[in-house]
Amino acid sequence: MQPVGIVGFGSHLPENVVGPEFFHDPDAPVDPFANAPLFKVPATRHHVAPGERASDMIAKAARPLFERLGGRPPVDVLLTNVLLPDDPFMGVGAQAAHRMGIDPEWIVDLHNGGCASFVYMLELARKIMADGSARTALVAVAQNAAGQMFAQSEVRKRPHAALPGDGCGVAYLRAGGGSPILGVRKRSTPAYAEDLGLRASDGRKYWEPGTGQADIWFDPEKRTEIRERGNTLVPELVRELCADLGEEPSRIDVLVTNQPNRVFLKNWREALDIAPERHLDTFDRFGNLYGAAVPVTLDQAARAGGLRSGDLVVMSGFAHAGDFAAAAAVRWDDAS
C-alpha cells in the first residue's frame, strides 16, 4: 500500500452560538448534578442556521484549507459523513463537490461510521488510493443535528439535548506526502446496531406525517451496558493500535477522541494514562460534535501551534451504541 498522509485540516463552526439557557425547562426538577464539574453542560455550542445545508458546511470548512494549499487543489476522492442528511435519497457528496467546485472520480457518502467516521474514512481513502490510480482525497464530517433535531421545542427540554453542537471538519490527504498515516484499527459489532435509533414520540416513522418530534433513542434496558461499551472501546482500540505500531500508549504525544461528555473523556485518558494536556478537548467550547469532533479539534490545534513535528498523534472514537469503533495514528509533520 502506498503511503498516504494528512496534508492539512479545515473546519467550520456555524455563527449561531447557544448557551445553556436555551435548554432550560422551568418545570423540570432541579438536577443535583447540574453544576458538578463532570456533568455540567458545555458553556457554549454552535447551532446551524435555518436552511444551512450540510454541503454548505463542508464547502465552508474546505475553503480556508484550499486557500492554504494555493487555491483549488486536485481531489480524486471525496468521502463524506453527515449525521442528519438533508436529502435521504441523494446523500451529500455530489452537492458538496459542486459547492467546492471539484469533480472527484470517487464520491462516497458514508453513514454508518458515526462518531468514529473520520478515522474510518482515513482507512477507506488509503484503500481506494492503494493502487496509485487516485493520489488525493478530501475527507469531510458534518454534524448538523444540534440546531435542528435537538433544538425542537420538546426535545430541547431533555437533558441530553444540551450536549451536542454543530460543526464540520475536513482533511486533505495526499499519496506520498503530508503527515503519514501509520496505521488504523477498526472493530465492528453488528449485534449492537439496534440498541440505538431515531424515534418519534407519536411512534411514526420519520418520513410519515405526524406531530411527534423525533429524537435519539437508546434501549432503556441496556443503558448501563452501553455506557460500559463506551468506556472500554476507545482505550482497547488505542492499545491495539499502539501494539501494531510497537509503541506504548504512554508514548502518545497527542490523543484526540470523539467527545460525548466529560465522563467518557476522563475515563479514556485515565485508562490510557494520558495526561489531560495531551488529550485535546473542545467539549466546553463546541459541545459534542459527534464524528466532527476529531477533525475540528485537530484543525483548532494545528492552527494554534499545538501539534509539533514528530508528534505521535492518535485519533479514536466509538459510534452509536458501540457497534463500531476505530483508532488511527499519524506522525505529525509541520512541513506538510
Descriptive notes:
With 336 residues, the chain is of the alpha/beta class. The chain folds into two domains: 4-178, Peroxisomal Thiolase, Chain A, domain 1, CATH 3.40.47; 183-188 and 220-331, 3-Layer(aba) Sandwich (Peroxisomal Thiolase, Chain A, domain 1). It is 25% helix and 25% strand. The protein has seven helices and 14 strands. It has helices at 54-68, 93-100, 117-128, 223-245, 262-272, 283-286, 293-303; strands at residues 4-12, 16-18, 45-47, 77-82, 106-109, 136-143, 167-175, 179-188, 196-200, 214-218, 254-257, 279-280, 312-319, 324-331. The strands form three sheets. The protein has a ten-stranded mixed sheet, sandwiched between helices. A two-stranded antiparallel sheet has the order 2-3. A two-stranded antiparallel sheet has the order 9-10. Helix 2 links the parallel strand 4 and strand 5. Helix 4 (223-245) runs parallel beside helix 5 (262-272). The radius of gyration is 19 Å and the shape is globular. It starts with a strand and ends in a 5-residue tail after the last strand. The model has no long low-confidence stretch (mean pLDDT 93).
Q: Count the strands?
A: 14
**Order of helix and strand elements from N to C terminus:** EEEHEHEHEEEEEHEHEHHEE
Round the Cα radius of gyration to an integer and report it: 19 Å
Q: What would you say the CATH architecture of the largest domain is?
A: 3-Layer(aba) Sandwich
